[in-house]
Amino acid sequence: MINLTIDNQKVAVEAGTTILEAARKVGVKIPTLCYLKDLNVIGACRICMVEVQGARTFIPSCVAPVAEGMVVRTNTPAVIAARKLVLELILSDHPMECLTCLRNQNCELQDLAKEFGITEVRFDGAKTEYPIDDSSPSIIRDPRKCVLCRRCMSVCTNVQTVQALCAENRGFDTLIAPAFNEKLANMECVNCGQCSLVCPTGAIVERDDTAKVWAALADPKKHVVVQTAPATRVQLGEAVGAEPGSIFTGQMVAGLRRLGFDKVFDTDFTADLTILEEGNELLQRVTTGGTLPMITSCSPGWIKFCEHFYPDLLAHLSTCKSPQQMFGALAKTYYAKKAGIDPADIYCVSIMPCTAKKYECRRPEMNSSGYQDVDVVLTSRELGRMFIQAGLDTTNLPEEEYDEPLGISTGAGEIFGASGGVMEAALRTVYEVVTGQTLENIDFEVCRGLTGVKEATVQVGDLSVKVAITNGLGNARKVLDKIRAGEADYHFIEVMCCPGGCIGGGGSPIPTNTEIRLKRIDATYTEDERMVLRKSHENPAVTALYEEFLEKPLGHKSHELLHTHYTPRGVNK
Amino acid sequence: MKSLDELAKIKESRRAALKIREGVPSATEKAHVMMCGGAGCISSKCLEVVDAMKEALSKNGIAEQVQIILTGCMGPCDMGPVAIVYPDATFYRRLKPKDAEAIVEEHIMKGNLVQRLLYRAPGAKEPTPKVTDIDLFAKQKKIVLRNNFYIDPTSIEDYIANDGYAALGKALTQMQPAEIIEEVKKSGLRGRGGAGFSTGMKWGFTAAASGSPKYVVCNGDEGDPGAFMDRSVLEGDPHSVIEGMAICGRAIGAEQGYVYVRAEYPLAIERLDYAIQKARENGLLGKDILGTGFNFDIEIRIGAGAFVCGEETALLTSIEGKRGEPRPRPPFPANAGVWGKPTVLNNVETWANIPEIILKGAAAYAAIGTEKSKGTKVFALAGRINNTGIIEVPMGTTLREIVFEIGGGIPRKKAFKAVQTGGPSGGCIPADYLDTPVDYDSLGALGAIMGSGGMIVLDEDSCMVDIAKFFLDFVVDESCGKCSPCRIGTKRMYEILDNISKGKGKEGDIELLVELATTIKATALCGLGQTAPNPVLSTIRYFRKEYEEHIRDKKCACNVCELEE
Amino acid sequence: MVACNCGCDDELTKQLDKIIDPYRGNPGGLIQVLTKAQNLVGYLPKWVQIQIAEGLGVSLQEVFGVITFYAFFSLIPRGRHKISVCAGTACYVKGTKMVLKTLRELLDIKPGQTTPDSRFTLEQVRCIGACGLAPAMIIDGKDVHGRLEPEIIPGVLEQYA
Question: For binding [2Fe-2S] cluster, which residues are annotated in this chain's numbering (chain C) (predicted)?
Fold first, then answer.
């Protein structure tokens, strides 16, 4: 252990601990801006400077390791003054459009300005001027608001291994952007939105589509239906100010009704449906010698990643559409028919923890109903804003139930939101369908948690099913490289684009970090346990759907509405 | 070659052949003409002089009896092209092709010096023919540049003749690695790149660091505007750098070295590349050097134009093929350098000192210089001074001696105003401090720094606001952009200075500059940023009145700044 | 090779591959490859960057980030002759401004620009290490011209067709 003094308090921490971490241990808060635990530790913004006895300069506490006998002062007048001036400098190169910024009141730079009581910026020199990139259906980049913390680059490069962004030029002209300032829409960006999740300011934000939804709700001719993704119910609370880990299912449903949605349905329903389609596809591939391992296809960021970086492995992808797109296709066919509504009048809205879903719903192949199946996707953040704009005290709304039939779901659908959830849901069903026996313990703990690559072998009848589960695209890459090298003997792989799965998706409430992800995961499994039905094949609405409309899994209609194909895209095209 | 004996034999035979350069007349040769082949003289067309001289020699039928050697930089660039004719050691300056005939026919053939081409000290009527008698050279002490008058930089035999690679031989056969490090420590050698850290300690840390392989790196990214010492060493005596690095390789247990050279120095790159090739051919680089089992080799990495790559962590990142952005220290390169491995990084001049220290011993080296700054320092003298060029003096020589005795004072009878040392990281030292001894600590105390050795002399016509603005402009251009104080802070400082220089300054600007400067020094990520405000702080410290005149009277007394309205 | 319209050139592509070969799959060689590639092609257009990125196994983003960091690399074609005016301290105090002014008048271009006839590209560099000859400029990276005065600059330019 290393002994040191921080603000006159004695501290003993393990060697290798940074001053910042050591300070946090004794309740001393040092402000930071570029720092993001485990992800971006580069000491660039110089806000976290502290005084270390004997040092020639102030020391960046986020990167400096502790040393024996070190005497640290975090809040001397000189330190405070230096931080304040550095902050003033950063603000002098910032547009100061806070009142009209999507991140107003949820901005780390704004928080710092408030904490430091900045009331004036004395420098009126040049400001960074680069054009806004609003080409992407998912993400909008405004380099003027960028503080060059490089978190986005770090997450895109190191976590997602997409590398859509780089630091360009140098000095005052430094810019974080794609090469040749290419538009995000024209390149390998997979729209995962993890960059928007880590951006401390409004330099990268989700495309705000709330106006479209308000307009649809105001249009008396439109029958506006909404689906809510599994992860949204453990996120919406946060989006309106509740503690992370709050379960908000009933409140969210109630809130959506108050906003004026005609029907409030649940993506969990089509998650259950996905299990039946995908489970049967897996069994078919296993029994008929199809391409194995089969890989899940629920996550549109992952799909685009595979199309760009592993186009040779596209045959491994399940042909199942994602639950959101299955829902869209059914809403404008099955539901329209059942409810006697002209599908042209149905406006289909999705609430997703995901920015890539905004891209997915616009893919040309997502028109199987004859219309764009899903009209618009809102992220959890956007729905949170709509609730607030509508003046709803969402937290205290009496809980309400989803509408039938597309709102009926099981715990298996619910856990789709967490890494391993799709796999666990599939195993619950595949086991019972194949063996005809009731699964005693339906909790596949081995599937759960934040580990990047999880592997398991599950005995299903005569077959030892070998599975792998990855979250975060960098981890997917590890497994994909094994497949490419012919070293993977899995049957089934679940890939979720974002770290932790959809509960940590790019459309999640900000902040989203490991701790918060874990809380959302806990809430997800709590919700699963509360459900009466916890296996997809037991969902009576899904059974009815097959009986009334689809006939059987992988049947003709299923193929028409619920399955899709992929496009090899390559890199640098 | 495979042994020390072979090395000694080459030395002996070559030395005998070069006796004439020590002033000993030769029975077979009439003269050796050492023509300065530094970049300065080359651009003054010394190669045309060489051609003319060859022609004159042939015409007179004595081409076989006279050698013409293109040497490294001899120093007095403004007198170029310059040459020394041995055995008389006569120094000729400002040579033109048409002068070749006179030197050949009068001097070499008849022994009559060509009076009009001889050096005359400022104010002196009589010329000073002999190089060793010339003040400019007599006051210098050459260790780093020990070979620049003497050898052909493209001849490894010449280098060996003047004790070259003997230090490596000694280090490989008579010294243990720890002894080598101890010797370097005892010599008191401090890094010549600017910061002045103890070279021996640096080696010691790297030797002690866990992790392998280890690397030896030479920083030849001499980027200070107004500095060309390293260039002179690389062009004039590349083997001294190679030998120094190899000795370090032995000391710390490294087998691979990198020399990082700026792309702007094509001749230096060419000479170094050739020297490395020759060293390999002669078994002085590569496997089993001198039959001792020691392996060491060197690769050149060419910098692509970024001043910040002179900063050590940036340089290491650049060697790895990335953007040359500095990273926080610790970890220091001694523990995590190139490819994350323990690395010793020293600059060109530091490396060139090593063979001399090992060969002659730490005590001899430490006898030169001051208590805390040992040895000599090479400076590049430029600006408003008579003798511009490269000089090497013992540490502790005063600024007055450098500027007025060696440098020959200020041209056109103008008054001395200041000397700028340390480039964009340094400061301006005014006339009051001319008697300051030049060493790390004394210069630091004045708000300047030793830096790598650029010395720009400024006279009464130099506007200090303009000079400060010049350096800030440089820094803004060269800031890597990673940390906010440097990226935005230096830009704001420049903008304020620009306003002042245009007559748009306002009360409080000086105080704001000082506030910015103080914070940037204390918070910037790397040495570039931390020292960037120095030129402004030092000019405010010594020439505050000039700032105030610009701000209050909207006047530039030197008529340099273009004031608006 | 499939014909494309990205501006790449079959012969250059082959030569570029030869430059890349020793560093294939080795991102550490990026700067060296870029230096040689620029010497080959004259500048670093997108197709060159893509070929290098794919050869070394790095993203185009990485390549572009490195290119735009270093002053030596150019994204746009340059003139047959590159005039680099030294703006080091010694030259600055002895007349960089004059040299630049003269060249701007003679060539009618600003630093960073190329003459319409592609004869000259003008740029400002930080110290070429010829401080003793201040003010100085270097042409084509090798010919140093020192002690410049407005009257002698036209004569210097004449040497470069």
Answer: 86, 91, 127, 131
